[in-house]
Amino acid sequence: MIKDLALDTSGDLYFTKDGDVVVTDSLRQAIQIKLRWSLAEWKYNEELGIPYFEKILVKKPNTQEIANIIRSALMEFDEVKNVKSCVVEFDEDERKCTCRFTVETSDEIIESEVEYT
C-alpha cells in the first residue's frame, strides 16, 4: 500500500488539533492526488498529469474522452485491478466537470469523485 500524508477534502494537508501531520496508507488519496495533477505541471516530466486545460475545461468537452483519460490514469496504479465505472458530468453554467468512479482492488472497492473547475 502507498504511504502518504493525509489530506482533507480540499486536498490540503490534514493536521491533528495538536498540529501533527497525519500519515496514512491510502490508495484513495493517491488516486485523488494523481487526478488533480495538471498535465505538464512538473517541469522534470511534462508528460505526467491530467490534461485539464487541453481536454476537460474546454468549451465543448468530450465526456467520453475525459472518461477514457480518467480510466487510463486509474489503471496506472498497480493496486487497481479494474475500473468498474467512470461517469463524467459537465456543468456548463458553472464550468465544472465532475468525474465519479469506482475501482476494484484485490482488497477493496473504492468509490470516489474528483471535480475540475
Helix and strand topology:
Elements: E1 3-5, E2 23-25, H1 27-35, H2 52-56, H3 63-75, E3 80-91, E4 96-105, E5 109-116
Antiparallel strand pairs: 1-2, 3-4, 4-5
Task: Tell me what the structure shows.
The protein is α+β, with helices and mostly antiparallel strands and 117 residues long. The chain has one domain (3-116): Roll (Nuclear Transport Factor 2, Chain: A), CATH 3.10.450. It has 3 helices and 5 strands, in the order ββαααβββ. The protein has helices at 27-35, 52-56, 63-75, and strands at 3-5, 23-25, 80-91, 96-105, 109-116. The protein has a 3-stranded antiparallel sheet, covered by helices on one side. A two-stranded antiparallel sheet has the order 1-2.
Question: How much of the sequence is in beta strands?
Answer: 25-35%
User: What is the overall silhouette?
Assistant: globular
Uncertain residue segments: 1-5
Kindly state the number of beta strands.
5
Overall pLDDT level: 83
Question: How many helical elements?
Answer: 3
Reported by name, the CATH topology is Nuclear Transport Factor 2, Chain: A
Along the chain, the helix and strand elements come as EEHHHEEE
Largest sheet properties: 3 strands, antiparallel
N-to-C terminal Cα separation, in Å?
30 Å
Q: How many domains, in number, for the residues?
A: 1
Structural class: alpha+beta
Q: Please give the order of strands in the largest beta sheet.
A: 3-4-5
Q: What is the alpha-carbon Rg in Å?
A: 15 Å
CATH architecture: Roll
**Level-1 CATH class name:** Alpha Beta
In which range does the helix fraction lie? 10-25%
